Amino acid sequence: MKLFLIQGIALVLVMALSGCSHLQPQAVKPWQRGILARQNMAISPNPVQQGLDDHIYFSKEAASGGSGVGGGGCGCN
Amino acid sequence: MQLKEKLGLAVCSLLTATQSQAADWLYDASVLSYSEKDSQQQDRVSVIEPVISVTKQNAVDDYVQFQAVYDSLSGASPNGANAAGVQQNFNNFLVRPGFTPLDPGFNDTRFAFNLNWLKPFDRLSRYLAGLSFSSETDYKSAGANFSYLQDFDHKRTTLTFGGAYSYDAVNPHGGFHDPFTSIYALPATPAPQTQTSPSGGGTGSGESESLFPGKIKQTFEGIFGISHVLNRFTLLNFTYGLSYVNGYQTDPYKIISVIDSAGLPVDYVWEKRPGTRLKQTLKGSFITAIGRDSLHLNYRYYWDDWGIHTNTYDVKYHLGLGSLLYLVPHYRLSQQTQANFYRLSLNNGQALPEFASADYRLADMTTTTLGSMFGVRLNAKLTLTANIEQIRQTGNNHPAIAIGDQRRHDMFPDLTFWALTFGVRGKW
């Protein structure tokens, strides 16, 4: 149920965005990157927080794709 | 693993190449804490984890970063045995009928250090390299990584090729146990420090002169990524990761209940996992600006040769509240299938499988996270943050494979906890 919910939300968001310019490919000149340069547009705007979260998931789930800020180690429980 | 985040930062530094002059020194310090409690109202693990990261930034694509982590864990952790209708004895502690057995002696601390640096080769290429080391009382790890990043198409597209290696040593308190032997068996005589078979038991000594005592686990990782500036508002990022783990991957503290035909425990044996694991991930990220805000959509598909498949969805919305405040509501959903050697328990008298583990983290499970970060920009050089998240793990409380007495008890108590993080970051 939750899976369908989040897939639905994502679908609605993408459909909403597809009607505007956000999904249309467009050449971007260097001087047109002001929005992309904002901190909240970084792939990981809060890397330390992201690392802490990833370490929680690393220690509590079977899958890993982000072991945390520790750079190795376990810290498992 | 962590390499992906570093690459994310490295790629981003390129995509945002018009960013104004970078600060010389950046710092980011946070403290995470949480205390777990399950649906049987049993307290589990408590964690306090401070982190500090300091970056010397010479240019957008030229920095050196050092990070230190301290991790303190204590409390009670599931030992793998099932709840039962009788009192259960695990040598050094007893468990009341109906409760999932938790080993109350869980206690560890971890220190971890990372050094990363990003340097340009030329105007369109650069490399990211890093070293890491961590130490716990029963686990040590050292690693290195290197990635090459190449820009194309007027820096609209970046390709990344990277690799990493880590060398880990597991050295459990109380030594190693032979797989599938009873926890009531007399402990094996400690042997001189030697490396033994990856998944086998044998003996291991906690006393050693070696920097990496115990059994060894090596991890080889590769990653390929592509990032693309779709337009002035949107970034796309895709990565494929491959990881091969070779060595000791059994959890030396986990056991499995051995039950009779009535579902009651007659013994407990030590678990055993395969000595190799091939893990793969595909991850896609979609980041777009909505006015002054931004929306981050992430999807990751994970699979490995242990039979585990995971779908993970992550949504964040960076909401500005004027020039000083911002919120980052966050929702994450991760659903995993169980490992092919996961067992709820073993049946007394039946042939033993080649591998078996009752670790709930290898079971069918769903993890949901709901929370938000709150940030206050006090001035151009100082930002305070607080992050609060509720993390909930649920599984199959009454699996079909449960028999007899097992059907009367919760085989997977839900786990819920609040994770709090306070942070400060800025530059000087």
Written overview of the protein:
The complex is a heterodimer of chains A (77) and B (428). Chain A is mostly helical. Helix content of chain A is 40%, strand content 0%. Chain A is built from two helices and no strands. Chain A has helices at residues 2-18, 47-60. Chain A starts with a helix and ends in a 17-residue tail after the last helix. Chain B has a single domain (2-167, 285-427), classed as Lipocalin (Beta Barrel), CATH 2.40.128. Helices cover 3% and strands 58% of the residues of chain B. Chain B is built from one helix and 21 strands. In chain B, the strands form three sheets. Chain B has a 16-stranded antiparallel barrel. In chain B, strands 13-12-18 form a three-stranded mixed sheet, with no helix packed on it. In chain B, a hairpin with a 4-residue loop joins strand 8 (139-152) and strand 9 (157-170). Chain B starts with a helix and ends with a strand. The interface between A and B is large, with 63 and 114 residues.
Short structural description:
The complex is a heterodimer of chains A (77) and B (428). By secondary structure, chain A is mainly α.
Q: How are the SSEs ordered, and which strands pair?
A:
The complex is a heterodimer of chains A (77) and B (428).
Chain A: H1 2-18, H2 47-60
Chain B: H1 2-15, E1 25-38, E2 43-59, E3 62-78, E4 88-89, E5 94-95, E6 102-122, E7 125-136, E8 139-152, E9 157-170, E10 215-229, E11 234-247, E12 255-259, E13 265-270, E14 276-290, E15 293-304, E16 309-321, E17 325-336, E18 346-347, E19 365-379, E20 382-395, E21 415-427
Parallel strand pairs in B: 12-18
Antiparallel strand pairs in B: 1-2, 1-21, 2-3, 3-6, 4-5, 6-7, 7-8, 8-9, 9-10, 10-11, 11-14, 12-13, 14-15, 15-16, 16-17, 17-19, 19-20, 20-21
